[in-house]
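Hi team,

As requested, here is the filled-out complex form for the S-adenosyl-L-homocysteine run. I kept the field names the same as last time so the parser does not choke. Let me know if anything looks off before we queue the next batch.

— J.
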Amino acid sequence: MTEAQKNVNPSEIEKFSSMASQWWDPEGDFKTLHQINPLRLRLIDNTVSLKGKKVLDVGCGGGILSESMAVKGAQVMGVDLGKELLDVADLHCLDTGVSVNYQHISVEDLAAKQPESFDTVTCMEMLEHVPDPGSIIKACNELVKPGGYVFLSTLNRNPKSYLLSIVGAEYLLGLLPKGTHDYASFIKPSELAAWCREVDLELVDSRGIEYNLLSQSFSMTQDVSVNYICVFKKPLGSN
Ligand code: SAH
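And here is what came back:
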């Protein structure tokens, strides 16, 4: 992929990079990622048994998910286009002694270099920040081995998700910094599924992540109307 063809929105990378120092503060700008991480980690580990698995975390940011998967015994590579974010991720590993291989490379370029080299690929809360999510999904499929799993999470696009994830989370509750999300970039499950079907990824599971105002905590549900995670499998014998 040449510079001109890069599937990246530089202002999105700039936005996340400007908050890099906050990444590991459980009460900071990325509080929500810290809160949902145990839920998504459990889903991934229950599905693939992370111990000993080669895992790629696409759009890893400061490494909240990457590091937690490494703690479970996976051999993790994390890629992102925000250099400052990867520096934060590396520094955090120095602190904790956890080993993660962070690389500043686009997922499309990585797919060209080392196809079918991961047992599991995760791409969480990232697709709604790129110009062409289908290209990211295609690369994720190229990177996973046949029989392996791809986990994708994003925000659904409907009036309820607009109200909860932008009006509610950013403006009323302050769960996310204002301007984190752009409604037009949200992705319906049917759109996600269509991109995955194009590359023959099979949907095996989908879950919603719901915020409970009373307990001020998140839980997994079957309701994918706002934030959701889909689990896909690359069939054996496909390429
Ligand atoms: N996946 C992490 C971080 C989500 S925040 C988590 O869920 O904990 C979104 C991340 O996507 C940011 O780190 C941002 O830098 C990254 N990102 C945005 N566009 C990207 C692109 N084209 N390639 C790689 N990473 C990208």
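Two things worth flagging: The pocket of S-adenosyl-L-homocysteine is lined by residues 7-8, 12-13, 16, 33, 59-61, 64-65, 80-82, 85, 106, 124-126, 129-130 (CB under 6 Å). The chain is about 40% helix and 25% strand.

Thanks,
J.
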